[in-house]
């Protein structure tokens, strides 16, 4: 993928996919959807997808029972963008439009959702990163206040477990894009006070203190200030998220962090050679750190065939794409719509659910079953594997893991207990480090330009 903008448009509807998925392997209560992605808009047709084998009904019922008992945590959902830009009420059905709404979260057995506070790289250039983050945080509180019987704000492991006991969905938040703190540790602490419990150090852009996997490396990983950001996050109990960062940045984080880190929505590079994915040596280091890699669902990240087809398509369509970007350079909404139409006319091949499970399996075998979880990227991607078309389909993961021979204990770890264990350890490190949020915190900040 060459266009790194996450937010070309969020209204793309993949009609062909919706029609084709009526025969998906594990139909649930509601039909499927498709939306947009963190790097560019595209659509994928499943019209030519081969029929999946009939499921084992006895195993399916066992999977449903296990799934309902488990704490199911998704560490990355971008529906927050639609909630902010359109005041979308998550309690309203968005079938055929988005991947996420309250009814489908409940149908999917979700226990806890980390709403992504995604701050586009344009704010790093134009200004307003912190304000954008504040607007998105307010929308998460707004959703919880609109639906207090279904949601509960959560900032801790204890909150997540309490929400589960009460039959509610725990609403948590993670910042995506470290430029949101505007190079200020004071701002970082303020975001912690507002409920932010992880921060993705970069997005697709290298910022003033950390290199991204999708941009020019300017710092050889983390700068001294970047290392101080990691230490401060440890002191606060905010999880350090290494999705999107360069390999060197990730290595530096592992050198510095005293608490477990997470990759909130990444996958295994050994299976798909995409720079957003994590190589085996770093998977093993994350295991040594007691961290967790939460597997991303996006076909272009997890399916080598889809990734190769995506690159070939961009090369083939480059003249048309360049023409559209020039014609609509002052109208980003129309640009997104036109690019969506172009990609819809040139779809990628469908990706089976087994590819997603392969990534979970690989990380479990390479890093250990205690170090893998789920980070969907719902509503941050335009297409999803067949059988995982929206958030209601999460029980399919439980079914597929049982089918591959995972024990119920290990399935529960993958669904959420691994994340809770790492989160609890980050909380313990914070308690042992400091008794205050700001009182013992550094006032260091970078001036304009990163100096």
Task: Briefly characterize the structure.
With 451 residues, this protein is α/β, with parallel strands linked by helices. It has helices at residues 15-20, 57-69, 79-86, 102-107, 122-126, 129-146, 157-165, 185-194, 224-236, 247-256, 280-288, 299-302, 304-316, 318-327, 332-344, 353-366, 395-403, 408-433; strands at 73-77, 112-118, 151-153, 169-176, 196-200, 239-241, 262-266, 292-295, 372-374.
Q: Would you report the number of β strands? A: 9
Quote the CATH topology: TIM Barrel
General shape = globular
Run of helices and strands: HHEHHEHHEHEHEHEHEHEHHHHHEHH
Question: Can you say what the CATH homologous superfamily is?
Answer: Metal-dependent hydrolases
Structural class: alpha/beta
Gap between N and C termini, in Å? 31 Å
Structural commentary:
The chain has one domain: Alpha-Beta Barrel (TIM Barrel). With 451 residues, the protein is α/β, with parallel strands linked by helices. α8 links the parallel β4 and β5. α8 runs parallel beside α9. It is built from 18 helices and nine strands. Helix content is 43%, strand content 10%. Strands 1, 2, 3, 4, 5 and 6 form a six-stranded parallel beta sheet that branches. Strands 7-8-9 form a three-stranded parallel beta sheet.
């Amino acid at each position: 993928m060459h266009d790194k903008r996450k937010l070309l448009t969020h209204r793309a509807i993949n009609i062909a996919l919706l029609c084709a998925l009526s025969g998906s392997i594990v139909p649930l209560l509601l039909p499927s959807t498709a939306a947009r992605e963190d790097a560019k808009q595209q659509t994928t047709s499943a019209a030519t997808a081969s029929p999946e084998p009939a499921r084992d009904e006895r195993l399916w019922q066992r999977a449903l029972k296990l799934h309902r008992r488990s704490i199911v945590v998704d560490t990355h959902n971008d529906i927050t963008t639609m909630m902010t830009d359109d005041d979308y009420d998550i309690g309203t059905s968005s079938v055929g439009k988005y991947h996420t709404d309250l009814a489908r979260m409940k149908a999917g057995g979700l226990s806890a959702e980390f709403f992504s506070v995604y701050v586009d790289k344009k704010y790093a250039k134009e200004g307003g990163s912190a304000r954008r983050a504040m607007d998105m945080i307010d929308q998460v509180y707004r959703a919880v206040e609109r639906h207090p019987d279904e949601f509960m704000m959560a900032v801790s492991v204890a909150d997540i477990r309490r929400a589960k006991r009460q039959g509610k969905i725990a609403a948590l938040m993670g910042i995506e894009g470290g430029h949101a703190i505007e190079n200020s540790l004071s701002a970082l602490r303020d975001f912690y006070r507002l409920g932010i419990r992880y921060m993705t150090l970069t997005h697709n852009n290298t910022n003033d203190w950390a290199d991204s996997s999708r941009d020019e490396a300017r710092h050889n990983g983390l700068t001294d200030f970047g290392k101080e950001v990691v230490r401060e996050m440890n002191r606060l109990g905010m999880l350090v998220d290494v999705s999107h960062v360069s390999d060197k940045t990730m290595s530096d984080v592992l050198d510095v962090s005293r608490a477990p880190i997470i990759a909130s929505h990444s996958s295994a590079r050994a299976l798909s050679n995409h720079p957003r994915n994590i190589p085996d040596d770093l998977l093993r280091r994350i295991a040594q750190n007691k961290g967790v890699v939460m597997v991303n669902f996006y076909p272009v990240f997890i399916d080598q065939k889809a990734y190769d087809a995506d690159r070939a398509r961009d090369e083939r369509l480059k003249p048309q794409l360049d023409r559209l970007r020039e014609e609509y350079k002052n109208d980003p909404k129309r640009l997104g719509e036109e690019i969506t139409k172009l990609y819809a006319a040139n779809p990628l091949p469908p990706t089976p659910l087994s590819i997603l499970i392969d990534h979970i399996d690989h990380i479990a075998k390479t890093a250990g079953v205690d170090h893998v979880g789920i980070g969907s990227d719902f509503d941050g991607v335009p297409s999803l594997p067949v059988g995982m078309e929206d958030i209601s389909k999460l029980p399919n993961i439980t079914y597929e893991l049982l089918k591959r021979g995972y024990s119920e204990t290990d399935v529960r770890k993958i669904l959420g207990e691994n994340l809770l264990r790492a989160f609890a350890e980050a909380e313990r490190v914070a308690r042992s480090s400091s008794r205050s949020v700001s009182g013992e915190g550094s006032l260091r900040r970078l001036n304009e330009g990163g100096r």
